[in-house]
Here is the input.
Amino acid sequence: GDEMTNVLLMSSSLNEGKNTKKWQEKFERLKRYKEEHGHTNVPRSVDNTLSKWCNTQRKRCKELLKGDAKTPMTGTQFRALESIGF
Here is the structure.
């Protein structure tokens, strides 16, 4: 549940720096969206910024799964998204 997600996010490494906070804010928005709508497919008409962010995250998840070392996604972020059924 939520506690597990928070533990995963707290344990992220320091070198993730400034982007972590921004990522966290978007993740919280996505979590709220899912609670309201029951899914994570955010249409652009509802929230353009969040929709674009989701598309980027999907791309980065694929990169991570392929073992692409250049992806900015961390294992922590991947597990957080996975935990909400992204």
Remarks:
- The helical segments are 2-10, 17-37, 48-66, 75-83.
- The chain is about 65% helix and 0% strand.
- The chain has a mean pLDDT of 85.
